[in-house]
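Purpose: get a first structural picture of the assembly so the mutagenesis plan has something to point at.
Setup: two entries, given in the order below. No constraints added.
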Amino acid sequence: MAKRGFVDRLPVVHQLRQSVGLQRGMLVAGLVLALVFLLVALLAPWLAPYSYNQLRGPDGLFGSQQPPSPEHLLGTTVGGYDVLSRTIWGAQTALFVVVVAILLSVFIGILLGLISGYVGGWLDRVLVVIADAIYSFPSLLLAIVAAIAVSGGQSGLVPGVLSAAIAITVVFIPQYLRVVRAEVVRVKSEAFVESAKVIGASTWRIMFRHVLRNSTRSLPLIVTLNASEAIATLAALGFLGFGIEPTAAAEWGYDLKESIGDVSAGIWWTAIPPGTAIVLTILGITLIGESLNDLADPRLRARRRAAKQTPADAVAASQPVAREIMGEVE
Amino acid sequence: MTTSEVAPVDQPPPLLAASRSKSGGGKLGRYLLTRFLLIFVTVAILVTVVFFMIRLTGDPITAALGGRLPADQLAERIREAGFDRPIIVQYIEYLGQIFTGDFGTTLTDRQPVIDVLVRYGTATAELAFYALIVAFVVGIPLGLVAAAKRDKAPDAALRVGAILFYATPVFFSGLVAKLIFSVWLGWFPVSGRANVRTEIALNRSGGSGFYIIDAIASGNPAYVQDVLAHAVLPAMTLGLAIAGVFLRLVRTNVIGTFNMPYIDAARSRGVSEYRLVRKHAYKPALIPIVTVIGLQIAILLAGAVLTETTFEWQGIGFQLARYLAARDFVAVQAIVVMIAIIVAVTNFIVDVIAAFLDPRVRY
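Result (structure tokens, whole complex):
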């Protein structure tokens, strides 16, 4: 393939250039939503009119279930908090939990997958059976159990956020283990690993330098998809009462749980804002993940019409039979 | 969840599925036996994980009642329940109990857990059944349409719609549906499985616990109507969430099948486009979907827990949330373990069906 410029080789930029039509639209929409989420999360202290645990302003208490007004653009909750502020601060909590959960699960999952795939034998079989058992189980229930284990259902700021993150981590580890293990098993039998052994490289060096580096190609996609799942799980935990206390941090799922009663009374402003925030965030990340997934698979990639094609595009656009002739193995 | 949705493209469709399944009888038997034994392995692993995770925080009695009882009474109850013995002894005892179908007694309201499971399990099963009907009726035809109109306007609209449904947590879509259709428009009841009067009437006559069956059996059309009216919103909420998953699965599988060489071969022989789609692509694409859909039981159950909480549908999930709030971890553990058993058994059944449909699964 012809050389690509540096900018073009950056992960998302390349896919953006590769995409056309609807797929490009979905990718761009996803990127915009994700960017807005990131900005809101990072700038929450400056964007939010009040703090997430603020109950009173200069004129005294905010009051409970106040309808939207100039002071409170989206009204107040049953607990007397400002809805808009808690929705904005909620982005920060979500971002924090997602980042911690993904970092932890990627680290532990890769390590276990590497060991499982490279060492093999009974250790491999045991790890895979355990991972499969955990993977087949409803992730939400596992997250609940994990949340009990980490915090006993208690919920301060750091323990609450951490326990949610760890609970989500437990759910994700089996996925990374399976994916990395499959790749490791494939890479292990390649000639360059054999060569490294012949030269006398240590097992650790082979595992981390030769095998690991060639086994992580599908991870970015799973990370993206898991990020949206992490936000959904966090919200579901909060909705079932494993949220973070309102005084410790703002959490969308917890606010939705509090609004069940409001909805029956016809109060819309406590439920819609945090719910919409969840939907838009998950939507943005999912759109990115879906687009990357489709673009990674030539059979699902929308075909570019007309000229200005690189040879690679021509391969992608051709029928499978033609690709085999060109020497590309499925 | 996410990986299983991406995976099906890579499975070529089963060719000539049923006709060959008889030839490898011995192998099939051994495969089914292995899968059957795997149920016990899976359940044992999950029970172990759940048991030790919940015990990490200490004994359940302190968790549930700590601070509400004086220390000496607390110690007395801990000793009475046997929570002061070494954890490994308790673990082995617990395994034995589960094997004999004894899940223990809830701490907060002192009920045998098995009673709780039986009483509320039917409600969850009823909700799951309605939701599956909605998901099948909505998800599969729309998935076929999306695949046939690939990359055109209907496909684009359906895919964005499916992602939107996927992105919306069931508890939020449930709340919105409740707000619009129950509170503002007043078309449906706000929550519960039936009106109080209907519930009393249905429970008095004994019955199966499936309200719709009991209502039809009672012969009173008012009861049937009441039960159905209560079921509409929860069933739609959960069903549409799963329909989004089905739609994506069907679409990806059918498109994958379209790319198979034998479709090209059929097209080059002059088979009409319509026949190509209906006869050559749909059938082989839909067979693996049947099994993949069976594996969505985990999503269905997790979704049921949340939907029940939203609509105060008195099922297992609603009880789970209640026991969680009361910090009754004995009950939580029992409910989680029972769901593990249901999932493992369902997966086994799905594997059996898959083995009969597709001989290659057995290898």
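Residues 1-24 of chain B have pLDDT under 50 and may be disordered.
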